[in-house]
Amino acid sequence: HKEMKPFKKDFLWGSATSAYQVEGAWNEDGKGPSVQDVKEIVPDTSDFKVATDHYHHMQEDIALLAEMGFKTYRFSISWSRVIPDGDGEVNPKGIQFYSDLIDECLKYGIEPLVTVYHFDLPQGLAEKGGWENRATIDAFVRYCDVLFDNFGDRIKLWLTINEQNMMILHGAAVGTGESSIKSLYQQNHHMLVAQALVMNLCHKKLPHVKIGPAPNISAVYPKTNNPADVEAADLYTAIRNWLYLDIAVYGVYNHQVWAYLEENDALPDMEPDDLAILKSAECDFIAFNYYNSSTVEALPSGTERKAGKKDQQLSDSQEGFFAGSDNEYLPYTEFGWQIDPTGFRTTINQIYSRYRKPLIITENGLGGFDKLEDGKIHDTYRIDYLRNHIKQMNLAVTDGADVFGYCTWSAIDLISTHQGFRKRYGFVYVNREDFDLKDLKRYRKDSFYWYKGVIASNGKNL
Ligand code: BG6
């Protein structure tokens, strides 16, 4: 039995949500539409108009998180609630909502961990070309400036962009749409420049606060030990993971990704100062989301893609380079996502040894069908998933990785990005279905009581 090192004394235990998946009130109090409000909804799943109706249950919801003993709560700010068209007037009611939310967290000693942008670009900006349009960089910097002015006194931890890598790899699922590789990496480049400018602005304006990126990072396994598969995995790791962290930490484009973009005729157009801007910014910590590992194999040119059918998260492929594949050693959730707690330890150690920055996990969790019976939800599958991942995180801490916090996904039930309300992630059950809003009443799941015990024992009682 291995002796485990304890988690830090002030370890930030908590959980996460995002604005469009939880708030509802999609057009209330001056909020403008985001791309999520107007996108084509996956058949048989709910739209995002009411969601969990957190906008109208905010105090009740935060009280439930406080009851679990949360040390942090990660939420995102809806850009189009604060600036309805993305680059015009500021909406005072939007500012008020987030100000109240922050105060409510602080009232219970919960540290707010704020994502400024989580998949919900204002529709007004999308209509002007979205991230392909360089002007979106200025709009983003201004939006963040407004946030820093209004909340900089109370927020100590900021996250820039949620899962920028998934927006590039899986745009269709998360509301950015389908584009050519050239266009995707142009959008990506603008986001990277915008992020660098915002990190610099934050450091200048608010020297005592900390800011970091929040990509989805996962260890990538080669399907076999055939060197061609290993090479494919290595390239895919650079494209999926290191591109985003190399820029946030070292301020440089990953060399393998650069060569890959060159080969695919997809290098972004740049302004003369762009590389210097990227070089000038450095994050204070690395936040990342982890759900499972990835497995890839080589995909020689002219081969038909055969892998990655079942698991939507692994379905990336690029002919001539790599194809996502299933991993026969790993089980699946009911929604076809593979489960790999050991890969979590590997991922933490890979990130820490490459960058040596403090780490916080900003999402980790299991989406499943939950059943409400006599006011109870026996979600042992969720508890098992989280327990096994927290154990592996503890092993990584014991290995020596500097981890200062952990957020599950999600604090309360919300709408999945593309699989509807029936795919639940929360500790708190919200009584509605995809097409029946019912009473939106909140119920504590079994995992609620379990996580409370985890936090109270600083991760000892799993
Ligand atoms: C992450 C996102 O990709 O995974 C969340 O940051 C999302 O917004 C979560 O909800 C789970 O994915 P899904 O598709 O099951 O909602």
UniProtKB/TrEMBL annotation:
Catalytic machinery residues: 363
GO cellular component, one term: cytosol
Keywords from the named record: Glycosidase, Hydrolase
Keyword Hydrolase: yes
A molecular-function term among this protein's GO annotations: beta-glucosidase activity
One Pfam family linked to the record: Glyco_hydro_1
Stored SUPFAM superfamilies: (Trans)glycosidases
One GO-annotated biological process of the protein: carbohydrate catabolic process
PANTHER family xrefs: 6-PHOSPHO-BETA-GLUCOSIDASE ASCB-RELATED, GLYCOSYL HYDROLASE
Family under the similarity heading: Belongs to the glycosyl hydrolase 1 family.
Protein name: 6-phospho-beta-glucosidase
Top-level taxonomy: Bacteria, Bacillati, Bacillota, Bacilli, Lactobacillales
